[in-house]
Specification:
The chain is an alpha/beta fold. Helix content is 48%, strand content 11%. It starts with 6 loop residues before the first helix and ends in a 9-residue tail after the last strand.
Length: 390
């Protein structure tokens, strides 16, 4: 098997892709030691054509393929698309529209986060060889076994997609995954602006001083990781950001007293810049602190019990529908419903309300009960005794 290694070959392949209703896409990349993913291989296939593209080949210009990714008349099919989408977003080629077979599998009854090889096994009755999965994709030349493995990730995907889509359409569930697909291509999910880095984390306090320093330190870490092309965790761990924001040390001695900061950090190449970021965060906390929505507190002592009850209901309804419960509602959704019948949560909107949300509210009102029937939970109507006439 020979990969595409020249821009001319790539342009010819992409010309054949134009006008196709969909193209199955996958990537191989390395990022264990870097901030930015290093794109090593692109695989693409339609029912009638397929190719492995080497983006590391000398002189290779990926623009012909990036134009295909930007072409909104061609559906892009991925499995577990998030990291692939991040790569194309970094290349200014957000792949819209998109269909993720892992998300679709959740609605089709294949469980939560089903692996690609498991989906191929169940739908196509084919066993994939995954022995090349963790090989060094940046090393050249690539072995024939690597290329065969890589191409299989899209040739089978091109066969899976029509089958999975037809199954969802037949069951009236295609609309169930539409919002999820659109969310995957929301640029906000792949924002790498340092000033927004704190949003990816979980601040534990809500004082202006803490939040201002937290935001400043998270931004410093993001800028440093990007400029040095190193993983964030190699610069500073997430829990260290929380402790730094809590203690807000302004000198080397104070920084070295923190338990979550590596010993001698103040004397490293990062120490002075981190201290400067802390001082910046302390300059005007009231003005610089980000707005963080506080978690809703329970409206009643029974709210915790209601959440546990809703978890059982969610599992029962998901099993009844043959859908992964994660697609219907999250624990956060359940907590919001437990506290507020009119909570602005996806679980109380659209098809999710029909599949689960309305029943969740009825359980809260005592109109439905959960009954253990052998090993299965059934949802039953509560029959209320008529009031005695006076």
């Amino acid at each position: 098997m020979t990969p595409i290694t020249t821009t001319a070959e790539l342009a010819a392949f992409c010309d054949r892709l134009k006008g196709q209703p969909f193209v199955a896409v996958d990537t191989e990349f390395m990022r264990e030691t870097t901030y930015w993913p290093k794109l090593c291989l692109i695989q693409a296939a339609t029912p009638s054509d397929e190719a492995v593209i080497d983006p590391m080949a000398e002189g290779m210009d990926l623009e012909p393929f990036l134009e295909i990714m930007r072409d909104e008349t061609i559906l892009k099919v991925f499995h577990a698309a998030r990291q692939d989408v991040e790569i194309f977003n970094n290349l200014k080629a957000m792949p819209r529209p998109l269909f993720d077979t892992q998300v679709a599998g959740m609605a089709a009854g294949f469980g939560e986060q089903i692996a690609y090889d498991a989906l191929v096994r169940q739908m196509l009755k084919i066993e994939l060889d995954k022995s090349s999965r963790f090989t060094d994709w940046a090393r050249r030349p690539l072995a024939e076994s690597q290329l065969t493995y890589a191409l299989a990730d899209v040739t089978h995907l091109a066969k899976l997609y029509p089958m999975l889509r037809a199954r969802l359409e037949k069951e009236g569930r295609l609309v169930w995954v539409t919002d999820e697909m659109q969310a995957l291509t929301d640029p906000a999910n792949y924002d790498v602006e340092p000033e927004n880095a704190w949003k990816r984390l979980k601040p534990r306090r809500h004082t202006s001083k803490y939040l201002s320093v937290y935001k400043a330190v998270a931004a410093w870490r993001e800028r440093t990781a990007q400029s040095r092309d190193q993983p964030r965790g190699r610069i500073l761990k997430d829990d260290a950001i929380d402790e730094v924001a809590t203690q807000a040390p302004t000198d080397a001695a104070g920084l070295d007293r923190l338990r979550s900061v590596p010993k001698g950090f103040s004397g490293s190449k990062f120490g002075p810049d981190l201290l400067e970021a802390i001082r910046e965060g302390l300059k005007n906390p009231e003005a610089n602190a980000p707005q963080v929505e506080r978690a809703r507190s329970a409206n009643s002592p029974a709210a915790g019990a209601v959440v546990e009850l809703l978890k059982v209901l969610l599992k029962a309804r998901a099993e009844d529908a043959g859908v992964a419960s994660k697609l219907i509602a999250t624990v956060s959704d359940l907590e919001q419903i437990a506290n507020d019948d009119e909570a602005e949560t996806p679980a109380l909107q659209g098809w999710r309300r029909e599949a689960f949300g309305e029943d969740a509210l009825r359980v809260k009102r005592g109109e439905l009960a959960l009954v253990l029937d052998g090993a299965r939970v059934r949802v039953v109507e509560v029959r209320r005794a008529p009031r005695a006439s006076s």
